[in-house]
Amino acid sequence: MERHDIESGLSVGPQIRGEDVRVLAQDGVRAIICNRPDAEGADQPTHEEIAREAEAAGLEFLYLPVTPGLVSDQTAQDFGAALERLPKPVFAYCRTGTRSTTLWSLSQAGRRPLPEILSKARAAGYDMSGVVRRIANGGKTPTDTGDAHYAVVIVGAGAGGIAVAASLKARAPDLEIALIDPADIHYYQPGWTMVGGGIFEARQTAKTMGSLIPRGVTWIKAAVAAFEPQNNAIILDGCRVVKYGRLVVAPGLKLDWSAIEGLEETLGRNGVTSNYRYDLAPYTWQLVSGMRGGRAVFTQPPMPIKCAGAPQKAMYLSGDAWLRRGVLKDIDIQFMNAGGVLFGVKDYVPALMEYVERYDATLNFFHTLTAIDGPARKATFRVSPPNEEVHTLTTDFDMIHVVPPQSAPDFIRVSPLADAAGWVDVDQATLRHRQFDNIWSLGDVMNAPNAKTAAAARKQAPTVAENLLADIAGRGAVAQYDGYGSCPLTVERGKIVLAEFGYGGVLKPSFPKWLVDGTRPTRAAWLLKEKLLPPIYWQAMLRGREWMARPESLPPAAE
């Protein structure tokens, strides 16, 4: 007998027989729902037979039949009401379990997020993409069939989304483009490290979204609920439908603060901060500038994360501030890294190690933050060195800079666009989806093995623009992305190690070595980060001006 857990208190499965009822009772099941009409199959037990066995075993039984392909809104409501009334655990069945799972999914609409419903169904082995519009519509069959349609739809108005919209408009001014994003404010996130280091003001890193949407691009201020790539459709919250000729997916990634026990309750107080949030970066500088002694802990979660150097940038700028104030000797700096190396590209490690030693920081590898007790100022880590027993470590702190675990957004992770790990599945050179030919992706959400940085998105946007327009013209891909990413590692106030690299850790410097030696800390790289990169971001990248970002041509296919 097959049995698949949907959630605590509910499991589903295919047709059962009398003897299965006794097994279910032994397993603790207290109620059975039959969603299969009688006489669907020649050897199928009737619901009365199962009901008698259930009564004999002391279980409650409900007959709620569903004809294949005809799951009504009322039946879904009745299923939800039954789940609330019946004793738990409940087992529901039909021919395969799909109808039972569909009823549960529709009954939960409006009670929990759509991605959660899809995720639980998928984990149990059932694909609910066929009823996603109904789930998005509160579990009811949509009556509005009027779809908006655009030649190109872009999901996400972050760095990648706006940049690709601007690059498309620069090449094809008459192209009909819609950009979907619910946010009112757009942030220059690379600037938050500088805010936490006391160099930038937070307000310098934020602009209204409306001021940045390229002219001629329709802004749809809404959240995406789901994708129907087989229908060239996007389902918005509220079950509005937007159709597209071509789709670009760039919603960024999810910062999973809740994955660390106790973190959300103490963020922004008790010495707990993070440069990964606009409202918290100023608190980082407040803590650093006020600290005279004690233990400062800096964490880095498992990869992938956006800007992999940012966790240690916070440490370096803090150490530099304490060194300049003459209090560093009284501060114990601990860097807790879930990974096994300081930086993934070895060419930059020697320069970084000089600063680790300068600030007398202790490097702790294979340490993953799992819990924080803010009032007690204690942090707990899972320590998992290779070939050693996993154990936990709890340490005190006076200040802790936390970088949360990161993943693809929930609505991406459960969509048909995602790979097994939840990221949008693309060809790493052309950035075109591997399964759906009229979809591209860029930025932090896609699965190409590059660093997730704004500099990477700056290079990716023209590649996507050129390949998308070539597709509209009936041609194959013409541009390729080489994995370029840049991580300006702020090792002290006034100096930066400018890490620039592509796929496989190959160095890709933008400047001659005599001007900027990326493997060494330089003043020139600092000036680039402080003075040039912000205006390049606002006035060039987001405006379709591709300074030092022209895409590389794709070599012609072999005959």
User: Describe the biggest sheet?
Assistant: 7 strands, mixed
Number of helices: 15
Structural class, from helix and strand content?
Answer: alpha/beta
Helix content: 25-40%
Mean pLDDT level? 94
Tell me the count of domains.
Answer: 3
The CATH superfamily of the largest domain bears the name FAD/NAD(P)-binding domain
DSSP strand count: 29
Distance between the termini: 54 Å
Low-confidence runs (pLDDT<50, min 5 residues)? none
Rg (C-alpha, Å): 27 Å
CATH class term of the largest domain: Alpha Beta
Q: Approximately what portion of the residues adopt beta-strand conformation?
A: 15-25%
The CATH architecture designation of the largest domain is: 3-Layer(bba) Sandwich
CATH names the topology of the largest domain as FAD/NAD(P)-binding domain
Shape: globular
Give a topology summary:
Layout: E1 4-7, E2 10-13, H1 18-26, E3 31-34, H2 47-56, E4 60-63, H3 73-85, E5 90-93, H4 98-108, H5 114-123, H6 132-136, E6 148-155, H7 159-171, E7 177-180, E8 185-187, H8 192-196, E9 206-208, E10 217-220, E11 224-228, E12 233-236, E13 241-249, E14 254-255, H9 263-266, E15 272-273, H10 281-290, E16 294-300, H11 310-325, E17 331-337, H12 349-358, E18 362-365, E19 367-373, E20 378-383, E21 391-396, E22 399-401, E23 406-407, H13 410-413, E24 439-441, H14 454-472, E25 479-480, E26 485-492, E27 495-501, E28 521-522, H15 523-540, E29 552-553
Parallel strand pairs: 2-5, 3-4, 3-5, 6-7, 6-13, 7-10, 13-24, 15-22, 16-17, 16-22, 17-18
Antiparallel strand pairs: 1-2, 8-9, 11-12, 12-13, 14-23, 19-20, 20-21, 25-29, 26-27, 27-28
Helix pairs in contact: 1-2, 3-4, 7-14
Protein name: TIGR01244 family phosphatase
InterPro entries: BLH_phosphatase-like, FAD/NAD-bd_sf, FAD/NAD-binding_dom, Prot-tyrosine_phosphatase-like, Sulphide_quinone_reductase
Organism: Pseudooceanicola albus
